[in-house]
Amino acid sequence: MDRAHCVIIGNGPAANSAAFTLRDNDPDLRITVIGEERDHEYRPDLLPDYIAGKATEEDLFIGKSESYKGHDIKLRLGQRVVHADFQQRELLLEHNEVVRFTGLIIACGAKPRIPEPLAVFEDLMLTLKTPADARLWIERLARVDTILIVGGDLTSLSLTKALLHLGKRVVFMLDCGSFWPVPFSPELREQVARKLTEHGVEVTECTKIRRISRISDHSFEVATDRRTMVVGILGAFFGLVPNVKFLAGSGLDIERGILVDEYLKTSRENVYAAGDCAQVYHPEIRDYWVSIGYTNAVELGKAAALNLLGDMVAVNVKRESILEVDGINVNSSWWMEF
Amino acid sequence: MAGVDVTVEVCGMAGDGTIAAGGLINEAMSAGGLSVLGFDSYPAEIRGFGRCVTRSRIGDEEILALGDETHVLISLNDEQSISRVPVLAKDSAVLFDSNPPIYVQEEKSLAAEVDPETMLFGMPFGDLATSAAGTARGRNLAALGGFAAVCGVPPDLFHLVITAKFKSKGEKVVDANLKSFDAGYAYAKERFADCLKTMFSGPGRAEGPEKVMLSGNLAIGKAALDAGLRLYYGYPITPATPIMEYLAKQLPERGGAVVQMEDEIASIGAVLGASFAGARSMTATSGPGFALMTELITHGVMAEIPAVILNAQRGGPSTGLPTKTEQSDLHAAVFGGPGDSGRIVIAPTNVAECYLFTVKSFQLAEKYQTPVVVLTDFFLDNRVENLPVPEASEQDIAFGNVFPDDSVKGSYIRYLDTETGISPRALPGMEGFAFSATGLEHTERGTPDYSPDNHMKMSDKRHRKIRSALRDLPMPEEFSRGGDLDVGVIGWGSTFGSVLEAVNTARSRGLNVGALKITSIFPYHADMIGEFMGRCARVLIPELNYSGQLANLISHLRGNDVVRLNLATGTPFPPSLILSKIEELLKAGA
Ligand SMILES: Cc1cc2nc3c(=O)[nH]c(=O)nc-3n(C[C@H](O)[C@H](O)[C@H](O)COP(=O)(O)OP(=O)(O)OC[C@H]3O[C@@H](n4cnc5c(N)ncnc54)[C@H](O)[C@@H]3O)c2cc1C
User: Fold this and answer.
1) Is B5-208's fold the same as B477-589's?
2) Does the pLDDT of residue B124 top 90, yes or no?
C-alpha cells in the first residue's frame, strides 16, 4: 500500500512548523513541503535589516536543506500550486504536475495588499514581503535617493528605519486607514507622524495620487491633489491579505482567508489551514478572525499538524490578541522602538 | 569572464532534438571564444527509443575532461532527465517544459526530484515554438533561447550558429528555428527577470585563430584525407562508423574510394593488398571487428606490409556495451593474434592528437612496414572539442617508404636484415625488384624456411625493427615540477585528460604530484617511463578497464609496485575519483 502522503502548501513559519511537527509525531508519513518562492525559509522581520545591510543572508535564511533531508521531508522550492481538487485529493502545480495527497495543510500566508484606488499603479510600486522583494529594493536603492512610502503598516515603519540608516530621503504619505491590521485612530496617526518627523522623515498629507509619470528608469513624477514630487521609488504598504486566490474555484469555504474551525479544519476532510491565510473561528465571539504574526503562524502550523494526525488541539484565539502582532501592542511598543 | 567552468547538459528522448541542441550550444560557445568539450550519449538501439544526453563542459581555459557535476540541465523529456538529477551541482539551473502535452504525475516529474537549491525554470517550450514558428518542432530551439537568457549568453552567438546549421535546409527552416529561439529567449528574459544568472557573461565573438568543432572521429577522417588516403575499406561498427561515413562523402571527391566490405576480415585483407601495392589505405573498427582482423594483421607483421587500423574501443567483451566507452582492447591491440607479432600501437589522448597521430600512422606504417594500430575509445571518438583548424605539415604527410637503391636492381633482397631491422621495400611493378611476400616464415629473400636458426633470426629482425620505431614515436610527456614526486599518475587514451585535471588540481593545492602521458603504447619508452616511476614515491595508473591493461604492460618497470585504479563503468573517468585516490595515497604515505 502507498504511504500516506501529507502535502503542505507554503514554506513559511506555519508550513515548516507543521512539517516538522508531523515528522516528530509520525515517522512513517511521507511529507512534502511546496513553496512558490525560490528561497529557503527566512525571517521576514529581518528583511528591512537585510536591505539596510545590517543582517546577512546567514541571519536571514533559517531553512536548511540538511534539516529537511535529516527529517525525511521533501522540500520543493520555486514551485507553485495553482489548483486543488479535493474530490480527487490532487494538487495541480503551475508546471502541470499532479501531486496526490492523503492529508493537506494549507499555509500559503498572505500577500501585500494594494488598495483599489492604487491598483492601477501596482506595477510601479514596490512592496516588501519576500527576499526577492528585498533584493529588488537593494538593486533600486543603489541608484535612488528619494523614496515615497504610501500607506503605513508595521512593515513600512521598519523599512523606513532601514532607509534612513542608508542615508536616503524618505517622504511618507501616511494613509488614514492603513495601520494594518487595525485602522489608525487619529491619536495613533498623529503619534506616528510625530515620531517619523522627529527622525527626519517628511510626512505629507494623505491625498489621492492622480498620476505617476515615469521620467527615467530611476525616477517618477508623482502628482497628488496637493503637490507634485519627483521620487526614485514608490513603496506601497497597506498590510497583507490572505494569499488564497488560487483556491477560489476549489470548493473550499473562503471569505477573506480560508475558513477553519478552532481546530484549523477547513470545510474539506483532512484539509487544514494555518497561519496568515487562515480565518479562524472564534467560539466566544462566534465569528472568524484572520490571525496574523510569526509566532502565531508557528503555533497554528503545529496545531494543524497534530489535528491532522488525529488530535483535537484548539488554537488559542483570545479576542484581544488580534490587537497584537506577535505580542507587540500596535498602539505603542512595536513602532516606538523606532 | 575569467573563471568560467560550466557543464551544460541537454537530455531528452531520441527524436527530441537533444543532440542538435547540444551541438548548437557547443558551436555557440565556441563562437564566443570559450573552450568546449562535448560528449553525447545515446542508446545502442535504433532511433526512436531511449535516452539521449549531451554534456558540454565550457570554460575559459583548456578543458581536459568532462566535469563531475552538471550546472545547467535542459530537459526536453522530464522522465528521462530524472536520471540526471544525481549529477546536478548544488545551485544548478534546470530548464524544463512547464506545459507538456499531458499532466505529469509526481512520480515522473523532474521538478519533484530536484534538490531545493536547484533553480527551476519552467517554460512552455512547445507552445513558444508553435506560436513563434507555427510548429512545435522547434521546442528544442525555444529551450536554447531560455538557456541563453537564463545563463547570460548573447543571443547573436546562437543566431550565428543556428543560421549556419540550417542554411542548407533553406531560408524558411532557418527563419523558423531563429523565431523559436527568440521566443524562448524573450519569454525567459521577462519571466525570470529577477533570477537570471550570469554564468557566461562576457563571451563576445571569438578572437584569434579560427576554431572548428571536431569530434575525435572527424579529426581522424580529416587526418586521413590530409595524409593522402587513397582507399578505405571497412565494415560499419559503433563507434567507428562516423569515420567511414565522413570518408564516403569526402574521399571520392579527392579521387579515392571507400569500399564497404562484407566483414572486417575482408576489410583488413583489402587494406593489406592496397598498402602492399603502395597506396595509402586504412580501415577503422571496434573491438569485435578488431578481433576478426587479428589473423590478417599478423600476416602484415610477417610479410612486413604497412596497414593503418583504427580501433575505436567500446565496452566489451563480445558485443558488450556498444555505445559505452572503455579502454579494454589494449592487450588485443598489442598482443592480439597468433605468434610473436609485434606491431606499433599508438593511442591519442585528445582530439588534436587523433588528428596528429592518424596522419603520422601512415608514415610509420610505411617506414616500419608493419600494421599500425591507432587505439582510440568511444569517449574520444564521439566527444567534440573546439580547436584551431588542424593542419599537417609537409613533413608529417611525407611518404615513409624506404625504397631499395637502384644499385641492387636485379639482386634485390626484400627482407634484408639491417641494423634497424628495416629492409628497403619495393612496390609491385618496380622493374628489377621482384620479390615474394608470404605469411610463412621466410628467409631474407622471402623464401619459406622453417629452420630453427632462420626463425630465430627473422623474429629478431622483426622485433628489432619495431623497437627501432621508438625514435619516431611520440615520447611520454611529463607534467610536474620535476624532481622527486610523492605521487606520479600515469595515463593513456581519453583517461589522460582526467588524470591531468586531477593532477593540476592537486598541484594547485600544493601537493607534490605529477602526471605522465603515454601515447606510444607499443613499443613504449621503457627507459623514460622507468625513470619517471623511479622518482615517484607512489605510482598510480587509472584506466577504464577492469584488469589494468596498461599497468600489466609497464608495471614491471617498477617491480610491479604500482597502484591501479580501474573502472569498468562504461563512462568517462571522473577526475574527482583520481584526485581522491591521490589524496588517499598521500595520506597513507604521510
Ligand atoms: C517585512 C515583514 C516583517 C514582519 N515582521 C514581523 C514581526 O516582527 N513579528 C511578527 O510577528 N510578524 C511579522 N511579520 C509577519 C509574519 O512574517 C507573518 O505573519 C508570518 O510570516 C506568517 O506566516 P505564514 O506561514 O502564515 O505565511 P508566510 O510567511 O506568508 O508564508 C507563506 C508561504 O506560502 C507560499 N505560498 C503562497 N502561495 C503558494 C502557492 N500557491 N503555492 C506554493 N506556495 C505558496 C509562500 O511562498 C510562502 O512560502 C512580518 C512580515 C513582513 C513581510
Assistant:
1) no
2) yes
Strand (E) or helix (H) holding A186: helix A186-198
Contact (CB, 8 A) for B55 and B39: yes
B79 — contact with chain A (CB < 8 Å)?
no
The pLDDT of residue B82: 96
Query: Is there a contact between A95 and B106 if contact means CB atoms under 8 Å apart?
Result: no
B95-154 residues touching A, CB cutoff 8 A: 96-100, 103-106, 109, 111-112, 115-117, 119-120, 122
Please give the Cα distance from A82 to A94 (Å, whole number).
6
Which pLDDT score is estimated for A329?
A: 42
E strand segments, B314-408: 344-346, 371-377, 384-388
Amino acid identity at B153: V
pLDDT score for A324: 42
Tell me, using a 6 A CB cutoff, whether residue A37 lines ligand 1: yes
With an 8 Å Cβ cutoff, the interface of chain A facing chain B consists of 38, 40, 65, 68, 74-79, 92-100, 132, 135-136
pLDDT score for B199: 82
CATH class of B5-208: alpha beta
Task: Evaluate if residue A3 carries a pLDDT over 60.
Answer: yes
Starting at the edge strand found earlier in the chain, the sheet holding B477-479 runs: B477-479, B513-517, B485-491, B536-543, B563-566
Residue A194 sits in the same domain as residue A208: yes
* Residue A338 confidence (pLDDT) above 60: no
ipTM: 0.88
- Take atom 38 of ligand 1 and give the residue whose Cα is closest: A108
B497-547 residue pLDDT tens = 999 999 999 999 999 999 999 999 999 999 999 999 999 999 999 999 999
A44: CA distance to ligand 1 center in Å? Answer: 7
pLDDT at position A325 over 50: no
Does the pLDDT of residue A327 top 70, yes or no?
no
Domain boundary among A211, A238, A265: A238
Distances (CA, A) of B110 to A128, B79, B121, B394, B581: 31, 7, 12, 54, 33
Averaged pLDDT, B406-415: 97
Ligand 1 mean position, distance from CA A153 (Å): 15
Is residue B260 predicted with pLDDT exceeding 90?
Answer: yes
Contacts B117 to A, Cβ<8 Å: 65, 77
CA distance A200 to A166: 13
Distance in Å, alpha carbon of A119 to nearest chain B alpha carbon: 21
Across chain B, which distance is largest between two alpha carbons, in Å?
86
Q: Which CATH number fits domain B477-589: 3.40.190.10, 3.40.50.1970, 3.10.450.50, 3.40.50.920?
A: 3.40.50.920
Cα A273 to averaged position of ligand 1 atoms, centre (Å): 14
A130 and A177 housed in the same domain: yes
Domain of residue A74, residue span: 5-111+241-337
Q: Are residues A133 and A192 in the same domain?
A: yes
Architecture of the domain made up of B213-397: 3-Layer(aba) Sandwich (3.40)
- Give the pLDDT band (50/70/90) at residue B41: confident
Angle at Cα B396 formed by Cα B395 and Cα B402, nearest 5°?
75
